[in-house]
Amino acid sequence: MRRMYEDSGIDLRKGLLEYQATEEITDAVNANLESQADPNNGFTAERTMRKIADIPVAVFHPWARKIGYYHMDHLDRWRAMRIFLAEHPEYRAVERLKNDTANQSHIIIK
After folding, report:
1. In the chain, what is the straight-line distance between the N-terminal and C-terminal CA atoms, in Å?
2. Whether 52 contacts 85, CB under 8 Å
3. How do residues 7-16 score in pLDDT, each as one tens digit?
4. What is residue 73's three-state secondary structure?
5. Residue 53 in contact with residue 32, Cβ under 8 Å?
6. Are 28 and 2 a contacting pair, CB within 8 Å?
7. Distance CA 50, CA 108 (A)
8. ∠ CA 39-52-26 to the nearest 5 degrees?
């Protein structure tokens, strides 16, 4: 379970509404470490789906906006995700990817 902390306030002198949200990501990192030890390598029992990463929204969204992830085609998204996971192994749910092709499946971001 992820914990999200939110705070807001009004600066009456400037006429601004301030909003801040923070997300506790320790649980996600610990869950990923446990998942890396799974002998199924992220595959479901039916082997129809595979979880390769669990990236908190507070981490993924700023990175995705910075590199233009939302405007990339499927192959470029796969390449960008592989680079991200190589640079940030704490978000990988599998120790390593067995196949190096983007055609094996779609990436689903939750």
Report:
1. 14
2. yes
3. 888 888 888 8
4. coil
5. yes
6. yes
7. 10
8. 95
